[in-house]
Amino acid sequence: MTNARKALRGVLGVAGFLLVMEALGRTGIIDPYLIPLASTILTGAARLLTNGEFLSQVGVTLSSCAIGLLLAVAVAVPLGMAMGTVPAVERSLRPLVEFLRPIPSLALLPLAMFLFLSGEQGKIALIVYTSCWPLLINTLYGLRDVDPLAKETLRSFGFGSYDVVRLVSLPSAAPFITTGVRIAASVALIVAVSVELVAGGDGIGVFVTQASSGNRRDVVLAATLWTGVIGLLVNSLLAKAESRLFRWHRARAGEEAL
Amino acid sequence: MLEISDLTHSYGAYQALGGVNLTVAEGELVCVVGPSGCGKSTLLRSIGGLLRPTGGRVLVQGRPVEKVPDDLAIVFQDYSRSLFPWMTVADNVSLPLRRRGGDRRSRDTAAMEALEQVGLPAAAGKYPWELSGGMQQRVAIARALAYKPALMLMDEPFGSVDAQTREDLEDLVLQVRRSSGMTIVLITHDIDESVYVGDRVVVLSKSPATVVGDLRVELPEPRDQIATREHPDFVHLRAEVGRLVRGMRSGGPAAAETGAETGAEAEADSPELDPATAEPAPVAPKA
Questions:
Q1: Which of residues 198-257 of B touch A (CB under 8 A)?
Q2: Is residue A10 part of a domain?
Q3: ipTM surpassing 0.90
Protein backbone atom coordinates (compact mmCIF):
# COMPACT_ATOMS: atom_id res chain seq x y z
CA MET A 1 0.00 0.00 0.00
CA THR A 2 1.35 3.42 -0.89
CA ASN A 3 1.89 6.07 1.76
CA ALA A 4 -0.85 8.27 0.30
CA ARG A 5 -3.37 5.46 0.52
CA LYS A 6 -2.28 4.63 4.06
CA ALA A 7 -2.76 8.26 5.05
CA LEU A 8 -6.15 8.31 3.38
CA ARG A 9 -7.27 5.27 5.40
CA GLY A 10 -6.17 7.05 8.56
CA VAL A 11 -8.13 10.16 7.68
CA LEU A 12 -11.18 8.03 6.91
CA GLY A 13 -10.91 6.36 10.31
CA VAL A 14 -10.80 9.67 12.15
CA ALA A 15 -13.65 11.14 10.06
CA GLY A 16 -15.73 8.03 10.69
CA PHE A 17 -15.16 8.27 14.43
CA LEU A 18 -16.18 11.96 14.46
CA LEU A 19 -19.31 11.22 12.39
CA VAL A 20 -20.37 8.42 14.73
CA MET A 21 -19.85 10.64 17.79
CA GLU A 22 -21.82 13.44 16.13
CA ALA A 23 -24.65 11.05 15.25
CA LEU A 24 -24.74 9.56 18.77
CA GLY A 25 -24.98 13.05 20.21
CA ARG A 26 -27.62 14.31 17.78
CA THR A 27 -29.84 11.26 18.23
CA GLY A 28 -29.60 11.68 21.98
CA ILE A 29 -27.98 8.32 22.66
CA ILE A 30 -25.20 10.30 24.30
CA ASP A 31 -26.42 13.35 26.17
CA PRO A 32 -24.71 16.33 24.46
CA TYR A 33 -24.68 18.06 27.81
CA LEU A 34 -22.38 15.37 29.27
CA ILE A 35 -20.22 14.98 26.17
CA PRO A 36 -20.53 17.86 23.73
CA LEU A 37 -21.10 17.18 20.05
CA ALA A 38 -18.04 16.50 17.93
CA SER A 39 -18.87 19.57 15.86
CA THR A 40 -19.06 21.73 19.00
CA ILE A 41 -15.66 20.52 20.17
CA LEU A 42 -14.12 21.11 16.76
CA THR A 43 -15.46 24.66 16.45
CA GLY A 44 -14.37 25.28 20.05
CA ALA A 45 -10.91 24.03 19.13
CA ALA A 46 -10.80 26.36 16.13
CA ARG A 47 -11.84 29.27 18.35
CA LEU A 48 -9.03 28.49 20.81
CA LEU A 49 -6.55 29.35 18.08
CA THR A 50 -7.41 33.01 18.51
CA ASN A 51 -7.66 32.81 22.29
CA GLY A 52 -4.62 34.70 23.63
CA GLU A 53 -4.97 33.22 27.11
CA PHE A 54 -4.95 29.67 25.73
CA LEU A 55 -2.02 30.33 23.42
CA SER A 56 0.12 31.78 26.18
CA GLN A 57 -0.67 28.78 28.40
CA VAL A 58 0.37 26.47 25.58
CA GLY A 59 3.59 28.46 25.36
CA VAL A 60 4.25 27.93 29.08
CA THR A 61 3.72 24.18 28.83
CA LEU A 62 5.89 23.84 25.74
CA SER A 63 8.74 25.88 27.18
CA SER A 64 8.69 23.82 30.42
CA CYS A 65 8.85 20.69 28.27
CA ALA A 66 11.71 22.04 26.17
CA ILE A 67 13.77 23.13 29.17
CA GLY A 68 13.11 19.85 30.97
CA LEU A 69 13.98 17.83 27.91
CA LEU A 70 17.24 19.69 27.32
CA LEU A 71 18.29 19.19 30.93
CA ALA A 72 17.35 15.52 30.74
CA VAL A 73 19.45 15.07 27.60
CA ALA A 74 22.37 16.80 29.29
CA VAL A 75 22.14 14.43 32.26
CA ALA A 76 20.96 11.14 30.81
CA VAL A 77 22.94 10.89 27.57
CA PRO A 78 26.40 11.20 29.17
CA LEU A 79 25.31 8.88 31.96
CA GLY A 80 23.94 6.36 29.47
CA MET A 81 27.18 6.57 27.53
CA ALA A 82 29.21 5.88 30.64
CA MET A 83 26.95 2.95 31.52
CA GLY A 84 27.00 1.62 27.97
CA THR A 85 30.76 1.71 27.58
CA VAL A 86 32.07 0.92 31.06
CA PRO A 87 30.54 -2.31 32.41
CA ALA A 88 31.53 -1.50 36.00
CA VAL A 89 29.53 1.74 35.90
CA GLU A 90 26.53 -0.11 34.52
CA ARG A 91 26.69 -2.85 37.13
CA SER A 92 26.83 -0.39 40.00
CA LEU A 93 24.11 1.96 38.72
CA ARG A 94 21.74 -0.59 37.28
CA PRO A 95 19.95 -1.55 40.54
CA LEU A 96 19.42 2.12 41.36
CA VAL A 97 18.00 2.80 37.91
CA GLU A 98 15.72 -0.23 38.10
CA PHE A 99 14.43 0.98 41.45
CA LEU A 100 13.88 4.64 40.54
CA ARG A 101 12.49 4.11 37.06
CA PRO A 102 9.10 2.60 37.95
CA ILE A 103 8.25 5.31 40.51
CA PRO A 104 5.31 7.28 39.04
CA SER A 105 6.54 10.83 38.65
CA LEU A 106 3.38 12.30 40.14
CA ALA A 107 4.16 10.45 43.36
CA LEU A 108 7.22 12.66 43.60
CA LEU A 109 5.19 15.83 43.06
CA PRO A 110 4.88 16.77 46.76
CA LEU A 111 8.61 16.32 47.20
CA ALA A 112 9.33 18.38 44.06
CA MET A 113 7.01 21.15 45.23
CA PHE A 114 8.69 21.17 48.60
CA LEU A 115 12.24 21.14 47.26
CA PHE A 116 11.86 23.78 44.57
CA LEU A 117 11.08 27.42 45.17
CA SER A 118 8.55 27.86 42.39
CA GLY A 119 5.96 25.50 41.01
CA GLU A 120 7.47 26.00 37.58
CA GLN A 121 10.82 24.70 38.81
CA GLY A 122 9.19 21.73 40.49
CA LYS A 123 7.37 20.93 37.27
CA ILE A 124 10.58 21.10 35.25
CA ALA A 125 12.33 18.91 37.82
CA LEU A 126 9.66 16.24 37.39
CA ILE A 127 9.88 16.48 33.60
CA VAL A 128 13.64 15.99 33.83
CA TYR A 129 13.20 13.04 36.17
CA THR A 130 10.66 11.27 34.02
CA SER A 131 12.18 11.89 30.62
CA CYS A 132 15.62 10.83 31.82
CA TRP A 133 14.65 7.15 31.82
CA PRO A 134 13.85 6.59 28.16
CA LEU A 135 16.91 8.66 27.26
CA LEU A 136 19.15 6.75 29.63
CA ILE A 137 17.92 3.33 28.62
CA ASN A 138 18.05 4.05 24.89
CA THR A 139 21.53 5.53 25.10
CA LEU A 140 22.68 2.58 27.18
CA TYR A 141 21.33 -0.01 24.77
CA GLY A 142 22.47 1.94 21.74
CA LEU A 143 26.03 1.94 23.00
CA ARG A 144 25.92 -1.60 24.17
CA ASP A 145 24.66 -2.72 20.78
CA VAL A 146 27.56 -1.20 18.87
CA ASP A 147 28.90 -3.92 16.63
CA PRO A 148 32.08 -5.31 18.19
CA LEU A 149 33.48 -5.88 14.71
CA ALA A 150 33.01 -2.20 13.85
CA LYS A 151 34.96 -1.26 16.96
CA GLU A 152 37.57 -3.88 16.23
CA THR A 153 37.96 -2.59 12.69
CA LEU A 154 38.89 0.82 14.02
CA ARG A 155 41.18 -0.68 16.63
CA SER A 156 42.89 -2.71 13.91
CA PHE A 157 43.96 0.57 12.32
CA GLY A 158 45.53 1.57 15.61
CA PHE A 159 42.84 3.94 16.90
CA GLY A 160 42.57 4.26 20.67
CA SER A 161 39.46 3.85 22.79
CA TYR A 162 38.59 7.56 22.75
CA ASP A 163 38.55 7.53 18.95
CA VAL A 164 36.52 4.33 18.94
CA VAL A 165 33.82 6.02 21.03
CA ARG A 166 33.92 9.17 18.93
CA LEU A 167 34.10 7.59 15.49
CA VAL A 168 32.11 4.39 15.94
CA SER A 169 30.13 4.11 19.15
CA LEU A 170 28.47 7.52 19.09
CA PRO A 171 27.44 7.58 15.43
CA SER A 172 26.19 4.04 15.66
CA ALA A 173 24.21 4.74 18.84
CA ALA A 174 22.86 8.05 17.53
CA PRO A 175 19.63 6.61 16.10
CA PHE A 176 18.84 4.97 19.44
CA ILE A 177 19.55 8.18 21.34
CA THR A 178 17.31 10.11 18.96
CA THR A 179 14.53 7.60 19.51
CA GLY A 180 15.06 8.18 23.23
CA VAL A 181 14.60 11.93 22.69
CA ARG A 182 11.37 11.30 20.83
CA ILE A 183 9.92 9.08 23.54
CA ALA A 184 11.14 11.50 26.21
CA ALA A 185 9.38 14.38 24.43
CA SER A 186 6.01 12.60 24.62
CA VAL A 187 6.61 11.75 28.25
CA ALA A 188 7.57 15.36 29.01
CA LEU A 189 4.27 16.67 27.65
CA ILE A 190 2.27 14.16 29.69
CA VAL A 191 4.13 15.02 32.89
CA ALA A 192 3.88 18.78 32.28
CA VAL A 193 0.12 18.72 31.77
CA SER A 194 -0.41 16.34 34.68
CA VAL A 195 1.56 18.52 37.06
CA GLU A 196 -0.36 21.58 35.88
CA LEU A 197 -3.67 19.80 36.47
CA VAL A 198 -2.71 18.70 39.94
CA ALA A 199 -0.57 21.52 41.24
CA GLY A 200 -1.72 24.51 39.23
CA GLY A 201 0.60 27.33 38.26
CA ASP A 202 0.53 28.01 34.54
CA GLY A 203 0.11 25.94 31.40
CA ILE A 204 -2.45 23.98 29.39
CA GLY A 205 -3.42 21.94 32.44
CA VAL A 206 -4.35 25.10 34.32
CA PHE A 207 -6.39 26.36 31.39
CA VAL A 208 -8.27 23.04 31.36
CA THR A 209 -8.90 23.19 35.12
CA GLN A 210 -10.32 26.69 34.82
CA ALA A 211 -12.57 25.72 31.90
CA SER A 212 -13.73 22.73 33.88
CA SER A 213 -14.65 24.76 36.94
CA GLY A 214 -16.57 27.09 34.61
CA ASN A 215 -18.46 23.99 33.48
CA ARG A 216 -17.23 24.45 29.89
CA ARG A 217 -16.84 20.82 28.88
CA ASP A 218 -16.58 21.83 25.23
CA VAL A 219 -13.56 24.04 26.03
CA VAL A 220 -12.05 21.30 28.21
CA LEU A 221 -12.27 18.82 25.36
CA ALA A 222 -11.13 21.35 22.76
CA ALA A 223 -8.01 22.12 24.81
CA THR A 224 -7.44 18.39 25.34
CA LEU A 225 -7.73 17.89 21.62
CA TRP A 226 -5.00 20.46 21.01
CA THR A 227 -2.76 18.81 23.59
CA GLY A 228 -3.12 15.56 21.69
CA VAL A 229 -2.40 17.31 18.40
CA ILE A 230 0.73 18.90 19.87
CA GLY A 231 1.96 15.53 21.11
CA LEU A 232 1.28 13.99 17.74
CA LEU A 233 3.06 16.79 15.86
CA VAL A 234 6.15 16.71 18.06
CA ASN A 235 6.36 12.94 17.74
CA SER A 236 5.94 12.86 13.98
CA LEU A 237 8.39 15.73 13.42
CA LEU A 238 11.03 13.93 15.45
CA ALA A 239 10.26 10.64 13.73
CA LYS A 240 10.65 12.32 10.35
CA ALA A 241 13.95 13.87 11.42
CA GLU A 242 15.09 10.45 12.61
CA SER A 243 14.37 8.65 9.39
CA ARG A 244 15.96 11.43 7.36
CA LEU A 245 19.11 11.67 9.47
CA PHE A 246 19.54 7.95 9.92
CA ARG A 247 18.61 6.61 6.54
CA TRP A 248 21.52 4.22 6.89
CA HIS A 249 20.04 2.77 10.05
CA ARG A 250 16.74 1.90 8.45
CA ALA A 251 18.37 0.69 5.27
CA ARG A 252 20.39 -1.62 7.38
CA ALA A 253 17.83 -2.70 9.92
CA GLY A 254 15.39 -3.35 7.10
CA GLU A 255 11.86 -3.21 8.38
CA GLU A 256 12.75 -2.18 11.89
CA ALA A 257 9.97 -0.04 13.25
CA LEU A 258 11.06 3.36 14.43
CA MET B 1 58.55 -9.34 8.17
CA LEU B 2 56.56 -11.63 10.43
CA GLU B 3 57.92 -14.13 12.91
CA ILE B 4 55.70 -16.22 15.11
CA SER B 5 57.26 -18.53 17.63
CA ASP B 6 55.57 -21.02 19.95
CA LEU B 7 52.39 -19.01 19.91
CA THR B 8 49.73 -20.40 22.23
CA HIS B 9 46.38 -19.05 23.24
CA SER B 10 43.65 -20.39 25.48
CA TYR B 11 40.14 -19.16 26.10
CA GLY B 12 39.70 -20.42 29.62
CA ALA B 13 40.11 -24.16 29.52
CA TYR B 14 39.85 -24.27 25.74
CA GLN B 15 43.18 -24.16 24.00
CA ALA B 16 42.89 -22.60 20.54
CA LEU B 17 46.55 -22.36 19.58
CA GLY B 18 48.92 -25.10 20.62
CA GLY B 19 52.28 -23.59 19.72
CA VAL B 20 52.30 -22.09 16.27
CA ASN B 21 55.58 -21.36 14.50
CA LEU B 22 55.51 -19.39 11.28
CA THR B 23 57.80 -17.04 9.42
CA VAL B 24 56.64 -14.83 6.58
CA ALA B 25 59.16 -13.00 4.41
CA GLU B 26 58.75 -9.51 3.04
CA GLY B 27 56.47 -9.45 0.01
CA GLU B 28 55.17 -12.97 0.47
CA LEU B 29 51.53 -13.93 0.13
CA VAL B 30 50.92 -16.70 2.60
CA CYS B 31 47.60 -18.49 2.86
CA VAL B 32 46.73 -20.12 6.16
CA VAL B 33 44.21 -22.96 5.89
CA GLY B 34 42.80 -25.28 8.48
CA PRO B 35 39.61 -27.00 9.52
CA SER B 36 36.92 -24.65 10.74
CA GLY B 37 37.23 -23.65 14.35
CA CYS B 38 40.91 -24.44 14.40
CA GLY B 39 42.01 -21.08 15.69
CA LYS B 40 42.82 -19.35 12.40
CA SER B 41 41.12 -16.16 13.51
CA THR B 42 42.80 -16.30 16.89
CA LEU B 43 46.12 -16.47 15.09
CA LEU B 44 45.22 -13.48 12.94
CA ARG B 45 44.01 -11.45 15.89
CA SER B 46 47.25 -12.18 17.73
CA ILE B 47 49.27 -10.93 14.76
CA GLY B 48 47.06 -7.87 14.51
CA GLY B 49 47.52 -7.00 18.16
CA LEU B 50 43.78 -7.27 18.83
CA LEU B 51 44.30 -10.10 21.26
CA ARG B 52 47.04 -10.76 23.75
CA PRO B 53 48.06 -14.38 23.33
CA THR B 54 48.64 -16.42 26.46
CA GLY B 55 52.05 -17.58 25.30
CA GLY B 56 54.71 -17.28 22.63
CA ARG B 57 55.93 -14.39 20.59
CA VAL B 58 54.86 -12.46 17.52
CA LEU B 59 57.32 -10.14 15.81
CA VAL B 60 56.17 -7.80 13.07
CA GLN B 61 59.07 -6.13 11.30
CA GLY B 62 61.28 -7.30 14.12
CA ARG B 63 59.22 -5.63 16.83
CA PRO B 64 57.15 -7.63 19.32
CA VAL B 65 53.43 -7.05 18.95
CA GLU B 66 52.15 -5.42 22.11
CA LYS B 67 49.54 -3.14 20.67
CA VAL B 68 48.25 -2.89 17.13
CA PRO B 69 51.31 -2.60 14.84
CA ASP B 70 51.52 0.67 12.95
CA ASP B 71 51.97 -0.69 9.49
CA LEU B 72 49.22 -3.22 9.47
CA ALA B 73 45.70 -3.42 8.09
CA ILE B 74 43.07 -6.10 8.48
CA VAL B 75 40.34 -7.05 6.03
CA PHE B 76 37.56 -8.90 7.84
CA GLN B 77 35.17 -11.45 6.43
CA ASP B 78 32.07 -9.55 7.42
CA TYR B 79 32.38 -6.44 5.26
CA SER B 80 28.85 -5.29 6.05
CA ARG B 81 29.74 -4.98 9.71
CA SER B 82 33.23 -3.71 9.22
CA LEU B 83 32.27 -0.81 6.95
CA PHE B 84 30.52 2.09 8.64
CA PRO B 85 27.03 2.54 7.22
CA TRP B 86 26.76 6.21 8.22
CA MET B 87 29.75 7.16 6.07
CA THR B 88 30.08 7.29 2.31
CA VAL B 89 32.37 4.82 0.63
CA ALA B 90 35.06 7.50 0.20
CA ASP B 91 34.86 8.49 3.89
CA ASN B 92 35.09 4.85 4.91
CA VAL B 93 38.21 4.40 2.84
CA SER B 94 39.89 7.56 4.10
CA LEU B 95 38.94 7.06 7.76
CA PRO B 96 42.05 5.11 8.86
CA LEU B 97 44.22 7.84 7.33
CA ARG B 98 42.92 10.26 9.95
CA ARG B 99 45.15 8.58 12.46
CA ARG B 100 48.16 9.48 10.39
CA GLY B 101 47.24 13.15 10.27
CA GLY B 102 47.57 15.03 7.02
CA ASP B 103 44.97 17.28 5.50
CA ARG B 104 41.63 16.27 4.21
CA ARG B 105 42.51 16.76 0.59
CA SER B 106 45.45 14.37 0.64
CA ARG B 107 43.31 11.80 2.45
CA ASP B 108 40.60 12.13 -0.17
CA THR B 109 43.13 11.73 -2.95
CA ALA B 110 44.55 8.61 -1.35
CA ALA B 111 41.01 7.22 -0.95
CA MET B 112 40.20 7.85 -4.60
CA GLU B 113 43.42 6.19 -5.71
CA ALA B 114 42.63 3.13 -3.61
CA LEU B 115 39.09 2.99 -4.98
CA GLU B 116 40.49 3.11 -8.49
CA GLN B 117 42.81 0.25 -7.64
CA VAL B 118 39.85 -1.92 -6.74
CA GLY B 119 37.84 -0.71 -9.72
CA LEU B 120 35.23 1.27 -7.82
CA PRO B 121 35.92 4.97 -8.38
CA ALA B 122 32.26 5.53 -9.28
CA ALA B 123 31.06 4.34 -5.88
CA ALA B 124 32.93 7.00 -3.88
CA GLY B 125 29.84 9.05 -3.03
CA LYS B 126 27.59 6.10 -2.31
CA TYR B 127 26.90 4.40 0.99
CA PRO B 128 28.22 0.89 1.62
CA TRP B 129 24.72 -0.55 1.98
CA GLU B 130 23.87 0.64 -1.50
CA LEU B 131 26.49 -1.72 -2.93
CA SER B 132 26.52 -5.47 -3.52
CA GLY B 133 28.45 -7.74 -1.17
CA GLY B 134 31.36 -8.14 -3.53
CA MET B 135 31.61 -4.39 -4.04
CA GLN B 136 31.50 -3.82 -0.29
CA GLN B 137 34.42 -6.17 0.18
CA ARG B 138 36.28 -4.27 -2.54
CA VAL B 139 35.69 -1.11 -0.53
CA ALA B 140 37.06 -2.83 2.57
CA ILE B 141 40.13 -3.86 0.57
CA ALA B 142 40.47 -0.30 -0.75
CA ARG B 143 40.38 0.95 2.84
CA ALA B 144 43.28 -1.32 3.70
CA LEU B 145 45.16 -0.28 0.53
CA ALA B 146 44.72 3.44 1.16
CA TYR B 147 46.41 2.91 4.50
CA LYS B 148 49.42 1.51 2.60
CA PRO B 149 50.30 -1.09 5.22
CA ALA B 150 53.46 -3.15 5.07
CA LEU B 151 51.45 -6.16 6.18
CA MET B 152 47.85 -6.88 5.24
CA LEU B 153 45.92 -9.54 7.13
CA MET B 154 42.81 -10.95 5.52
CA ASP B 155 40.42 -13.03 7.61
CA GLU B 156 38.30 -15.24 5.35
CA PRO B 157 37.90 -12.21 3.11
CA PHE B 158 35.81 -13.96 0.47
CA GLY B 159 33.78 -16.22 2.71
CA SER B 160 30.56 -14.27 2.28
CA VAL B 161 30.38 -13.70 -1.45
CA ASP B 162 29.19 -15.83 -4.36
CA ALA B 163 31.58 -17.99 -6.38
CA GLN B 164 32.00 -15.65 -9.34
CA THR B 165 32.68 -12.64 -7.10
CA ARG B 166 35.04 -14.74 -5.10
CA GLU B 167 37.17 -15.45 -8.17
CA ASP B 168 37.18 -11.77 -9.10
CA LEU B 169 38.29 -10.82 -5.61
CA GLU B 170 41.02 -13.47 -5.59
CA ASP B 171 42.38 -11.97 -8.78
CA LEU B 172 42.09 -8.52 -7.26
CA VAL B 173 44.27 -9.59 -4.34
CA LEU B 174 46.86 -11.03 -6.72
CA GLN B 175 46.85 -7.84 -8.75
CA VAL B 176 47.14 -5.66 -5.65
CA ARG B 177 50.04 -7.70 -4.43
CA ARG B 178 51.80 -7.39 -7.80
CA SER B 179 51.40 -3.63 -7.90
CA SER B 180 52.09 -2.83 -4.25
CA GLY B 181 54.44 -5.61 -3.20
CA MET B 182 52.93 -5.69 0.25
CA THR B 183 53.12 -8.75 2.46
CA ILE B 184 49.79 -10.50 2.79
CA VAL B 185 48.61 -13.21 5.17
CA LEU B 186 45.28 -14.56 4.01
CA ILE B 187 43.25 -16.86 6.18
CA THR B 188 40.78 -19.15 4.49
CA HIS B 189 39.09 -22.49 4.88
CA ASP B 190 38.95 -22.92 1.11
CA ILE B 191 41.72 -25.23 -0.02
CA ASP B 192 41.48 -24.32 -3.72
CA GLU B 193 41.66 -20.67 -2.87
CA SER B 194 44.73 -21.09 -0.71
CA VAL B 195 46.62 -22.82 -3.51
CA TYR B 196 45.38 -20.46 -6.20
CA VAL B 197 46.26 -17.24 -4.35
CA GLY B 198 49.22 -18.18 -2.19
CA ASP B 199 52.96 -18.25 -2.67
CA ARG B 200 52.87 -20.57 0.26
CA VAL B 201 50.14 -22.52 1.96
CA VAL B 202 50.41 -23.08 5.68
CA VAL B 203 48.13 -25.76 7.07
CA LEU B 204 46.94 -25.68 10.66
CA SER B 205 45.70 -28.69 12.56
CA LYS B 206 42.49 -28.87 14.55
CA SER B 207 42.66 -26.91 17.78
CA PRO B 208 44.90 -26.68 19.66
CA ALA B 209 46.33 -25.57 16.35
CA THR B 210 49.86 -26.23 15.25
CA VAL B 211 51.38 -25.94 11.81
CA VAL B 212 51.12 -29.35 10.16
CA GLY B 213 52.15 -28.37 6.68
CA ASP B 214 53.97 -25.59 4.91
CA LEU B 215 53.93 -25.92 1.15
CA ARG B 216 55.52 -23.64 -1.41
CA VAL B 217 53.26 -23.04 -4.37
CA GLU B 218 55.14 -22.78 -7.62
CA LEU B 219 52.59 -22.24 -10.30
CA PRO B 220 53.09 -20.25 -13.50
CA GLU B 221 52.49 -16.51 -13.15
CA PRO B 222 50.28 -14.69 -13.71
CA ARG B 223 47.73 -17.05 -12.30
CA ASP B 224 44.57 -17.60 -14.20
CA GLN B 225 41.28 -18.87 -12.86
CA ILE B 226 40.95 -21.50 -15.60
CA ALA B 227 44.51 -22.40 -16.63
CA THR B 228 46.00 -22.40 -13.14
CA ARG B 229 43.26 -24.55 -11.73
CA GLU B 230 43.76 -27.24 -14.37
CA HIS B 231 47.55 -27.22 -14.03
CA PRO B 232 48.76 -30.63 -12.77
CA ASP B 233 50.76 -29.01 -9.98
CA PHE B 234 47.65 -27.19 -8.79
CA VAL B 235 45.66 -30.40 -8.71
CA HIS B 236 48.47 -32.10 -6.88
CA LEU B 237 48.92 -29.38 -4.29
CA ARG B 238 45.23 -29.09 -3.71
CA ALA B 239 45.04 -32.79 -2.91
CA GLU B 240 48.02 -32.52 -0.63
CA VAL B 241 46.60 -29.56 1.27
CA GLY B 242 43.25 -31.30 1.43
CA ARG B 243 44.78 -34.35 3.04
CA LEU B 244 46.65 -32.22 5.54
CA VAL B 245 43.54 -30.25 6.44
CA ARG B 246 41.54 -33.41 6.99
CA GLY B 247 44.30 -34.73 9.19
CA MET B 248 44.71 -37.76 6.94
CA ARG B 249 48.43 -37.33 6.76
CA SER B 250 48.90 -34.97 9.58
CA GLY B 251 52.09 -35.84 11.32
CA GLY B 252 53.32 -35.85 14.85
CA PRO B 253 55.41 -33.17 16.45
CA ALA B 254 58.21 -33.77 13.99
CA ALA B 255 56.10 -32.73 11.05
CA ALA B 256 54.84 -29.69 12.85
CA GLU B 257 58.31 -28.53 13.66
CA THR B 258 59.99 -29.04 10.33
CA GLY B 259 57.02 -27.62 8.54
CA ALA B 260 56.87 -24.55 10.66
CA GLU B 261 60.37 -23.57 11.44
CA THR B 262 62.01 -24.08 8.11
CA GLY B 263 59.35 -21.81 6.76
CA ALA B 264 59.93 -20.24 3.38
CA GLU B 265 63.35 -21.73 2.96
CA ALA B 266 62.08 -25.26 3.24
CA GLU B 267 61.91 -27.45 0.20
CA ALA B 268 58.33 -27.91 1.23
CA ASP B 269 57.08 -27.39 -2.27
CA SER B 270 56.69 -31.02 -3.13
CA PRO B 271 53.68 -33.09 -2.28
CA GLU B 272 55.91 -35.54 -0.41
CA LEU B 273 56.26 -32.85 2.19
CA ASP B 274 57.59 -34.96 4.95
CA PRO B 275 57.89 -38.66 5.40
CA ALA B 276 56.66 -38.35 8.95
CA THR B 277 53.29 -37.23 7.70
CA ALA B 278 52.58 -40.64 6.26
CA GLU B 279 51.08 -42.01 9.39
CA PRO B 280 47.55 -40.89 10.17
CA ALA B 281 48.31 -40.22 13.80
CA PRO B 282 46.58 -37.39 15.63
CA VAL B 283 48.67 -34.31 16.20
CA ALA B 284 50.42 -34.50 19.50
CA PRO B 285 50.60 -31.22 21.37
CA LYS B 286 54.07 -29.81 21.42
CA ALA B 287 56.01 -30.45 24.54
A1: none
A2: no
A3: no
pLDDT digits (tens, 9 = 90+) for A188-220: 999 999 999 998 889 999 999 999 999 899 999
Tell me which residue of B170, B175, B167 sits closest to B154, measured CA to CA: B170
Question: In terms of DSSP bridges, do strands B151-155 and B72-75 run parallel, antiparallel, or are they unpaired?
Answer: parallel
Asked whether residue A40 is assigned to any structural domain, the reply reads no
- Report strand pairing: B151-155 vs B183-188: parallel
Q: Name the closest residue on chain B to residue A254, using Cα atoms.
A: B129
CB contact, 8 Å: A249 with chain B?
A: yes
> A104 lies in a domain?
yes
Interface-testing mutation among B81, B93, B137, with chain A (most A C-beta atoms within 10 A): B81
Core vs surface per residue A28-42: b (16+ CB within 10 A) or e: eeeebeebbbbebbb
Indicate the number of domains in chain A: 1
Residues in chain B within 8 Å Cβ distance of A246: 86
Please state, as a whole number, how many other Cβ atoms lie within 10 Å of the Cβ of residue B94: 27
Task: Write out the residue range of the structural domain in which residue A97 sits.
Answer: 52-253
User: Has residue A37 been placed in a domain?
Assistant: no
Q: Do A157 and B129 touch (CB under 8 A)?
A: no
A159 vs B76, B86, B99: nearest CB: B99
Domain CATH for A183: 1.10.3720.10
Answering whether pTM is above 0.95, one says no
Q: Which residues of B fall within a CB distance of 8 Å from A248?
A: 85-86, 127, 129
